[in-house]
Amino acid sequence: MKKTLVIILLFLSILLFADLPYIENLSPDSLATEIAVNTNIEFDLHDEDGILIDSVLVTITENANEDITHYAVIYDNLGVNQITDNFYEIQIDPNVNFRYGDSIFVNVRAMDILQNELNVTYWFKCVEDDSSPFVQSLEPANGETGVLVNSSIYFDVKDSGGAGVNLSTIEVNVNGSVYNYLDVGVFSSFSIDYGYGITINPPNDFNFGATINLEISAEDLAIPPNTLMETSSFECDITNTPPTVEDFLIQTEEDVAIVVPFAQHSNDDQGLEILTYHISDYPENGVYVNGSYIPTTNFNGIDVLTYRAFDGESFSDYATVNIIIIPRNDEPIADAGFDQMVDELAEVQLDASASFDPDGDEISYLWLMPEGIILSDETAINPTFIAPAVVENEDFIFNLIVSDAEYNDMSNVTITVLNVNQPPIADAGENQSVDEGETVYLNGSLSNDIDNDVLTYEWIAPPEIELFGSSFAESYFIAPFVSEDIEYNFILTVNDGEYNSEPDTIIVNVLNVMNHEPEIDIPEIFTFEEDTSFQQNFSYFVDDLDNDDLTITVSGNSNIFVQINGYEITFSASQNWNGSEILTFAVNDNQGGNDVTDEVEVTVNPINDPPILNITGTFIFDEDSILPTNFTQFMSQTYNETDNLILSAVGSENIDVAVLFNDVNFEPTADWFGTEEITFSLSDGEFTVNQTITIAVNSVNDAPIINLPDNLTFDEDSWYVGNFANYIDDVDTDILTLEVSENEEINVEINEFVVTFTATANWNGMETLTFTVNDNQNRTIATDEIEVIVSPTNDAPTVDDLLLTTDEDIFLEVILLGNDIDGDALTIEVVGLPSNGIYADGIYTPNTDFYGEDEFTYRAFDGENYSNLAIIMITINPVNDAPIMNLPDNFTFDEDSWYVGNFANYIDDVDTDILTLEVLGNEEINVEINEFVVTFTATANWNGVENIIFSLNDNFDRTVVLDTVEVIVNPMSDVEYPAKKVQVEPHTVSNNECEIFIYTANNEVIEHCEILNRRGKIINTIDIEPAFNEYNNVARWDTTDKFGRQIPGGFYIYQVKIGEKTYQGSIIIVR
Q1: What 3-state DSSP class applies to 190?
Q2: What is the mean pLDDT of residues 178-182?
Q3: Residues 636, 568 within the same domain
Q4: Are 873 and 858 in contact (CB under 8 A)?
Q5: Which of 445, 533, 906, 948 could form a disulfide with 473 if both were Cys (CB 3.0 to 4.6 A apart)?
Q6: Strand 619-622, strand 688-698: pairing
């Protein structure tokens, strides 16, 4: 009937509007009932004139029960399939499912190319909802034990009937406490397909060991509503699990406190939620107070504290908090020092040395001082100043500013200046210039005292001036007569009854105003010796008050000579003259006045003259002779003096001098010659004169001396070395020559006076040898004989080195012999054994395969002496050995892969020849040889077995060895290996399925894939199916649990075990 009505309506439309668009094959049909809520709307759209497809507009209105909100959805993005220009298939997939039991109204509008419009409306009714809501994914599950006391409760409420769950009707009764959506913070919800996910966070933890009973009730949105009532229970953990804490790090700045966030780094998931924190090791560089760390003032660096948590029942383990205190610039600290009390006018030193910068930065100083005070340096640490004079005690404040270039600090210090009695000030008046002989007045009345005390006076004058009234303010004196202008200093000191003033000086310049006659006062007599001179400074005897330049002259002298040079007077007399003369000296000041004179007696005393010694000529004579000489010719006196003269001499080291009156004999030491100096002395009883002369003694040759011992002895085949210098002498120290004769079996080697005696080998006996010594002065001087005895000794045997040759691995007969000149029986012994072989019983056997050089040593023994060591050197010629190759039974690698082997591990050659490795018999398997590294590959996609022959040649013209190895190529599936073993697609799931792709090799075993919730509980197990991509397995999960219930959105884990290894990954479900 419904279809008939639609056809009638369409027919009427066509009749009225022959060219209007029309629809056919409508689904669902108009007036249809029991239509599924997720149905699509489909129809065909026709128009003979052609349809404007962009004009098609479909409006769907869901006419819900009056208790349900009405809404409309307009679809303008249709699913369109164009059949012809006049025919379109239209499909609409609504954004959301329809509601159960609702009437759905559909309005279709469209226009053709002639602007003819179609406007058709029809309706259908959806199936009714008669199913009650249900609970799914309840955690903790019904009957679960060991539940944590701080657990929350989670479950999903769904309505499979389709009407949906009414959130406001959901109530949860937990042991009598009922919670619903109005309990914010306890009851929380989020939308899922067909319902809600509910979480209950009880305000208090459960009791340990308690049984928790749940009642969950809800209604759906159907009319009338379908109801839910479900009960469940679980048991809590019996014992408390201690809380856990972790090490962590916090950071603050120097001098800044910081809250220590223990709660962020502790957990009590398995215990009570209210934790307290206890400090075990307190910080060393700060304090912990009421949850905060306060660093020590100015400290920066790292501090540490240790803590643990307590849940009311159990303590956690200890954990460490590392606290980093970042340095920052601290303000400097100014300290202007201690207050001071000082006397006025005293020197005061300020002290800023106690100022400092906590960071050790360099700081600058600036002093601000009161007006009128001047510091020695305003920027110094310890400036100084002079305390001002004050009428009464007065305070002065000095401010100190210190700076570290960023921050400043100020401090002040108070200096109290005390009023004290000050010394008075002396004032001797102005300097004066006066004439000599004038009365001069001194006036100190301008002296003063700041304290107005009564003053007393004291004048001090130069010692040559008499001062009158020296204890009064005013005094006077008579200016002395002076030869030139002279300044005199007069010193005034005043006293206030306590202190003396500083002395004050007045200078009085006395002027010379008249000429004065000079004065002369000479001693009565001057005396000096004959033939000498006498010098006298007359400045001691003349004077002139005016200090004029004076001229001195002399008269009255005959045999006495006077030389005048200024005031220096030099007296002398004729040679050898003595006697007295009166001399007159005159002095004149060259100012036009008369001479002033005085007389002096000058006496020249007679003296004795020394004798004269004048030795001339040369004194030369021969060694071992005497030279007589009369010295009268060399001695004399002056001026007919007749003193008795005495001649003497001191002999030298090698010449004796004998003096008898004036006769002198020179006699040298025996055999001595050369030159020496001799000093002669001549005395007249008062004076002695000396003269040194050189005496030469000519050399005369003396015979040398040789005095040998009677004999000397040394052993046969030995030697004797003697120094004959001990037996030879020559007084002339001539260069001597030593020679020998009369020797036959004894050999003598002479090197200067070192004589070496040897004898013919193995000879012993006695010979008398004659030695001659010559001083090379054209005559043989001396000879002496000596018996030389060679004592017989046993001679050691001798052995000889041998050079022998044999081939590798061939023994060699070696006969060891020795020689003994004494004919003694010899014993042969091997001392050093061969290194690369064995010597035994006269046979040397080289080590197997050894070639090269070998040696051993031997010696002989005659019963008393060993011979020398001799070397047996044996050359072993090389003989080529065959190389060795011992390959494993087989090599294996996978199809389309390769195998690389180092054949050096299977090859050896004792001769270390350069070996060549080659291959034979391979067809499908390719072999590449690089020295002994062998690489096997195979024809693409080929697998199977080949026996391959390898040959090894030592390149000595023969192939030494062959070996065969079985090479196996395993068949492999032609699958490209994925980059990851397990891969999920998609990772974030917003629909109802995801795929977990898994790759396994041929020999790897995989059973299934497990899905775990965020608590690690397995909620589903998924079978493995074949995959047809780069992975060869897939697990398809429809986001349900093992009961087929769709899980809520959240974080889940997939877990796949391949062989002995487990692979995990995350899946996020978005609802």
Answers
A1: strand
A2: 89
A3: no
A4: no
A5: 445
A6: parallel
